[in-house]
Amino acid sequence: MIRFVLLGVITLAHVPALMAQKQCVLCTTPDRETSQAIRHSVDPGFNTAYVFVQTLVFTTNPGSVDTGATVVEDENATGTDGCYFNGSPFAPVTRVSGGTWTVGVPDTSDPDGSGTVLTANQWGPDTVGYSDTLATYYFINGAKLGKLPCGFHFYQNLTITCPNQTPIVFDINVNLTDTITSGGGQSCREGACGPVIPL
């Protein structure tokens, strides 16, 4: 006699639940992201800059969890530095630094990352702003030259790489700005802005 030991039965009724279970841990390309200004930078030399955390948004694949995916920045076009003027001892600031982040995991080697809490589909911190030296220099000399307000404008491209998958660009020409006025400096990312920080 042949005996069959039934260890488990999967019926059609179980399929939707299993698919939902699979979907909730699937790493996919986000449709977009949102930015939130959380605090001024604690990175030495960049205290007038502001820190932003991004949340990935999935409409095509709702329920995706991209924790562990890598986000890399580059640029789609050279930015502009409206505060720079001939005779400035500093070169114009026109491009992003080329940062890399892991979704859901703050970079504790970055002073701004050590105090940042991220959820599963968040990445950051992305620090936006002039260095304290440049911000102060242009605040003082820009006022003398009648150049205020002035600031930089970068265009950030973002590429995401899920584990064992091909890198995909998911956001193009993200606007990064820092504007210096007579009241101080204000950093913005994708429409989200920190407060004006006195200089």
Structure in words:
12% of the residues lie in helices and 37% in strands. The chain has two helices and nine strands; from the N terminus they run H-E-E-E-E-E-H-E-E-E-E. It has helices at residues 15-23, 132-145; strands at residues 32-40, 50-57, 70-81, 100-102, 122-128, 150-161, 168-181, 184-189, 192-193. Strands 4-3-6-7-8-9 form a six-stranded antiparallel beta sheet, covered by helices on one side.
The DSSP helix count reads 2
Determine the strand fraction and express it as a percent band.
Answer: 35-45%
Class from helix and strand fractions: mainly beta
The best one-word shape is elongated
Helix content: 10-25%
Compute the gyration radius: what is it? 22 Å
Low-pLDDT windows of residues: 1-24
Distance between the termini: 88 Å
Biggest β-sheet: count, sense, barrel?
A: 6 strands, antiparallel
Q: Which whole number gives the mean pLDDT?
A: 88
Question: What's the SSE pattern?
Answer: HEEEEEHEEEE
Output the strand order for the largest sheet: 4-3-6-7-8-9
How many β-strands, per DSSP? 9
Keywords:
mainly beta; 3-stranded antiparallel beta sheet; 37% strand; disordered N terminus
Structure, briefly:
The protein is built from 2 helices and 9 strands.
